[in-house]
Amino acid sequence: MDFKFSAEQEQFRQEVRSFLEGEIRQGYWTPACDAWIQGCSPDFTKRVAQKGWIGLTWPKEYGGQGRSHIDRLILTEEMLRYGAPCGCHWFTDRQIGRAILAYGTEEQKRDYLPRIVRGEVYVGLGMSEPQAGSDLASLQTRATESGDYYVIDGQKMWTSAARYMNYIYLVARTDPEAPKHRGISEFIIDAHLPGITIVPTIDITGSEAWSEVFYDGVKVPKNCLIGQKNRGFYQIMEQLDFERSGMERLMGNYPLFDALIKYCKPTKRNGKPLSQDTLTRQRLAQLEVEFEIGRLLIYRVAMVMEAGKAPNFEAAMAKAYSTTFEQHLASTAMDILGLYGGLVAGSKFVPMQGMAPHSFLGSKGYSLQAGTTEILRNIIAQRGLRLPAQ
Predict the structure, then answer these.
(1) Strands, DSSP E only, in 227-321?
(2) pTM (two decimals)
(3) Pairwise CA distance, residues 366 & 373, whole Å
(4) Across residues 3-26, what is the average pLDDT?
(5) CA separation for the pair 52, 35 (Å, rounded)
(6) Are 277 and 368 in a shared domain?
């Protein structure tokens, strides 16, 4: 099999790199770990939009470029490699636009998609709840019909970058009497409607990338419903494949990986550079091998999508593997740095801007985000290997 990229794809990759390197030279931002979710810059999103790089694969009639899924993966790979602050448009581009394309009305497509492409619409994910994380079908937030509106009452956890978002993608129960998988619907709503309260959640790294969002009698027009009423859970299952298949599951902390390799070249321990220490060299080489395997798994997902299929077990495989890599990277970095690994950003002698402890602390939640590793392994077993359910 030929794994080479075409000349056009290589040219596109270089175009993206040149753009990002120019951004860094001009001091617009500094590469950071988890910048795809924790780094929110409306100005950066607008500059990316001006390049035509949001909605890259979407039909041209809605403002997209109609390009391949491989092209989009090249774009996201380079954004992650440089730790660019993509948080404002990441989720909107990755899955919300696709949800509207797949299930939205023509009116919704012509309203939202061009504005997303222009970098004007930022959508947070309103899915998880205090008692409904991985078991999304157990959610209790309700959307009750009332005339021309739905009235929303409930609470959401881990709504991504909610304080920057002007819209929220909301999953709510529209039929409390139906079996739990069959009474859920999807909405896209204005984040500034009366009755919405956003409370930032400060995680173990000190980030406010997520928020609790409370809905108290929020009136939502019926045209905010995406797809069929009460069929939301089944629509979501396809969208989660896109969420799990992204390169961010492998490269969210690539700036740490790159910095670690550069750190080991000149830094001496016991009189010689770390790069000449046999054990350190072996550990870095192992990380590189694991990284390349994960990268191929994710490009495999893109090939499935290019064939017009939903990447179900392929996405689960890529995400489960990539999560393990990210956690291994963080642990290895902390081990190599030794006591210096405990220094956070701002400390006098901190190496690599404190990316190592940030990644290590954040890595504890990677196996929960976008589906627990246990759930993903069940998907691989049942849908990939066709093993019987127990």
Answers:
(1) 268-269, 272-273
(2) 0.90
(3) 9
(4) 95
(5) 20
(6) yes
